[in-house]
Design a protein that fits this description.
The protein has one domain. The relative contact order is 0.19. A two-stranded parallel sheet has the order 1-2. 32% of the residues lie in helices and 18% in strands. Strand 1, helix 2 and strand 2 form a beta-alpha-beta unit. The protein has 3 helices and 2 strands. It has 84 residues and is of the alpha+beta class. The longest helix has 12 residues.
Length: 84
Amino acid sequence: MNISAIIIKIYYLAGDIYDESCWSKLQGRKFNIIFSDALHIPDAPLYEFKMLKKYNLLADKFMIFWDDLNHGLERSFIHIFDEL
């Protein structure tokens, strides 16, 4: 009998999206699935993506899920997509 184990680690960040000290606490980890339910203003996802890059938090292969594609956020998502 061959038994395999899958270990899943989930990290949850709750704080002010613009508080860089929150992002720095995640440094040293790589994330392959990110669910973003941040502040619904156009600058928020751009800042979030900036912090993900600055602290090198993205795994080589990753997915980002954003909550809500309205409220004027469309341009932010297109900008991030183009950068990727």
